[in-house]
């Protein structure tokens, strides 16, 4: 299992040469590292800034995040949305929701984040509007199900970003269930004629998909 898909010094250079996270995102990241058991579940700054940029340049207004954790990615995307934009976030852990909300309340973009407490499979059908962008970062074994669930809700030209798409490099020689699922999902996406995608080695891999 690889801890880094690129050399650590290269990743640090990319961070230094990219737009930096806002002060409130920095504070949220620090609190996540100090107060949660699995801080690595948080999207890093490079992923967060990528999501913010994608949300902004795509003109997205309605965004769905599957797997919010403490809300670092959610707040990153909210920063890239117009004032009337919405980020719907599915999360099942009340403790991380509480932590995230404390920081949302301090941000001028926090009002854009709507937390849906419960299993994403139950929460997604309650969203009654077309989506411009979806970020999937939850149970890896359910990724294929989530993809099929959100595709009909996604506008033409809309984006889906799948996190951990390279699963720490294990997709090269998949052995465990999660490895096999992620490798199969990447191939499935690449072979679909109705989707454009690019798979990038950012952190543990992000697959950026556009619905034709």
From TrEMBL:
InterPro entries linked: Cation-dep_OMT (IPR050362), SAM-dependent_MTases_sf (IPR029063), SAM_O-MeTrfase (IPR002935)
Q: Write the Enzyme Commission number(s) for this entry.
A: 2.1.1.-
Q: Which GO terms describe its biological process?
A: methylation
Among the GO molecular function terms of this UniProt record, one is:
S-adenosylmethionine-dependent methyltransferase activity
UniProt keywords (A-Z) are:
Methyltransferase, S-adenosyl-L-methionine, Transferase
Indicate the enzyme's highest-level EC class: transferase
Q: Which CDD domains match?
A: AdoMet_MTases (cd02440)
N-terminal signal peptide:
none
Q: Which PANTHER family match?
A: CAFFEOYL-COA O-METHYLTRANSFERASE 3-RELATED, O-METHYLTRANSFERASE-RELATED
The name of this protein is Putative O-methyltransferase
